[in-house]
Amino acid sequence: MARPGAPSMPTRRQIDEVVEAVKALYPGARIKSVGPDGVAFDYPDGKSVLQEWADKPFSG
How far is CA 7 from the centre of its chain? Predict the structure, then answer.
């Protein structure tokens, strides 16, 4: 049996695209980590994000 491949890191283009999408929703977001599971972000003030998007429709 063949061994399963190791998870791959996201490409620079994938990272750039997700950063652009997240910053469009929350300009204060910062990259926390990049790994095989994807890009994780840090949101310095999470409460303002909730208030800003409250009662607004969103589709992802």
Answer: 18
Q: What does R_g of the chain's alpha carbons equal in angstroms?
A: 15
Instruction: Look at 51 and 26; give whichever has higher pLDDT.
Output: 26
| pLDDT tens by residue, 12-36 | 999 999 999 999 988 888 999 999 9
Q: Which residue has 């283009």 as its token pair? A: 13
Q: Which two tokens stand for residue 30?
A: 């910062």
Q: Return the HEC string of 6-42.
A: CCCCCCHHHHHHHHHHHHHHCCCCEEEEEECCEEEEE
